[in-house]
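Lecture 7 notes: from sequence to structure.

We start with a single chain of 398 residues. Read the sequence below before looking at the structure.
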Amino acid sequence: RDALLGYDHLDWDIATSARPEQVRRMFKRTVPVGIEFGTIGVLDPDGVLHEVTTFRRDVRTDGRHAVVEFGVSLDDDLARRDYTINAIAYSPSRGELRDPFDGRQDLQRGIVRAVGDPAARMREDRLRALRGIRFAARFGFDLDPATWTAITDTAPHLGQLSAERVKQEIEKTLDQVRSPSTAFARWRASGAFASLIPLLGAVPVERFTVIDHLPRPGARRRPARHLLRLGALFAGMPVADVRATLRQLRFSNADVSAVSRLAAGWLAVGADIGAALRAPRPPEDARIRRWAATIGRTQWTLVMRLADAAWASERARGLAAPSAAAVHSLYRRGVRIAFNDPVELADLAVDGDDLRVAGVPAGPALGKVLARLLDIVVDDPSKNQRDILLEIVRREGS
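Now the structure, written as tokens:
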């Protein structure tokens, strides 16, 4: 498929009539990555893994798992594939292209079409519905009407899928698709979100376009880009709901924490930053320090990149939004301020020990005093001096 589309850096899957045990005898270094399904990983001299799968057909399936049998023909093997554009085989030694379901024609037409009976293909593996949506979005293709009908019909049954498979499909969409909003709009329209992620089931489709204005992680899978796109998918949602949903989808604790912090930061300051950038004059430094203090200095760049994408999305839809120049100017000012001015408790010129010596009792009272001092120095960094802060403590405590 990708070779016919002219894509570089191809990942070739190898199909053979040889049974798994024969493949293992033929090569020195193998890994049984999915031997029950006929797949053996073969390591080449450079240590690169190649998946070699025996021709097979499904004996029975429950929509998640299949029992397969070997000893069938290549055409039988291709007949069990999901979409015609994925049911194409090439023999380098023979120079022969096998395409029994007109996948090449569908590539030329820009169509994602199920092999054979679309409803049967979806019943065999419910994940195919989400894969079909991703392929269409990735290549800018249309979905064949009968295939789309089968996808919408299978949506109520997507709950059969494991959380890990759903998570993987979301991540592939975020990483591989230039404009994920087209895929997620179809998730919503088909009922996939309603079945799998109710939190996103009623989100207006234009909200998904924010992701389109964030750079793709690409083949190198840049973590910050990936987390920004994932965060944009949930931006504006209640933080507790975002955290619960990500956990249900089996995201790592690190990802749950990072996306939740981004969602919380956007909810806390996004609207106020937008209002400030729509005002006649740029925001004062103290206001920027306040934003950085609210979300934490390390979140400033992430929140502003999300803001930039959100307002780019609004401008693309013809809405009034802060200009890119104004956003970038604030981004640079904010980086300088957040990483040079006092915006966190650790930046204070005094600590808890200093306050206890000054007579502030340990416990909640001490925390309140520290928070009060931070509030003061955020407004006026020149007051972040030990003597000045202790004098404030003595004066306000007397």
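The radius of gyration is 28 Å. Keep this in mind for problem set 3.
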